[in-house]
Amino acid sequence: MSALPGGESAASHPHAPVPLHRGNLFLVGLPGAGKSTLGRQLARRLHKRFVDADTELEHRLGVSIPTIFEIEGEAGFRDREETTIAELTALEGIVLSTGGGAVLRPGNRARLKANGTVVYLHAEPATLWARIRHSRNRPLLQTSDPLGRLAELYTQRDTLYRETDRALCARFGGGFSSHQPQFLMDLVLEPAKVEDALARRCDDL
Predict the structure, then answer these.
(1) Residue 181's closest CA among 46, 49, 31?
(2) Which residues of 5-38 are buried (b: 16+ CB within 10 A; e: fewer)?
(3) pTM value surpassing 0.90
(4) Looking at the DSSP assignment, which residues form a beta bridge with residue 117?
């Protein structure tokens, strides 16, 4: 059990900082939740390397995510994604943005929880759709009713995101503002600063 200045234990101090497990911060959430946008800013402010799991997979294969889906189907993509997640979560000192469906595989959820501090970036389907409606790089949303599909994904994955989030949950409404990376960093390192402000436990969402 870690000790605080003055000899208090972290368990006895309700506002003790939450250190990043193995120096890693892993972001999970649906498409459009802001994992890549906030992840890059957090990595800069925390002086850590930022890694986007989907971008890493595209670089390794030399093709886009939609192309992988087209050629190998979702199952083939998930196999490749799981291999990539296994390698990335073995690293230390990174901020990792995961793909929206990474939590579907039990192995991914276990590796994320075991190897870093996981944050679920939560947003409602309507908010997500407003952010990504012009994107053509999201194969699961190439349907006649993308908002309805987002709602289905939310229903399917929300519980899995909450299960994977080992430390805290962040809620964002309409858009992103400049204070949010600092807010998340404070939430990880000095939660007393923000516990009565924007932070919400997953159970309260």
Answers:
(1) 46
(2) eeeeeeeeeeebbeebbeebbbbbbbbbbbbbbb
(3) no
(4) 25
* Residue 70 Rama label (left phi>0; alpha psi -120 to 50; beta): alpha
Q: How far is 126 from 150, CA to CA, in rounded Å? A: 8
pLDDT digits (tens, 9 = 90+) for 129-170: 887 776 666 665 667 788 888 899 999 999 999 888 754 555
Q: Give dist(CA 192, CA 54) in Å, integer.
A: 33
Tokens of 116: 């870093």
Instruction: Give 200's DSSP letter.
Output: -
The alpha carbon of residue 162 and the mean position of all alpha carbons in its chain are separated, in whole angstroms, by 11
Does residue 96 contact residue 27 with C-beta atoms inside 8 Å? yes
Which residues, 6 or more positions from 40, have their beta carbon under 8 angstroms from its beta carbon? Answer: 50, 95
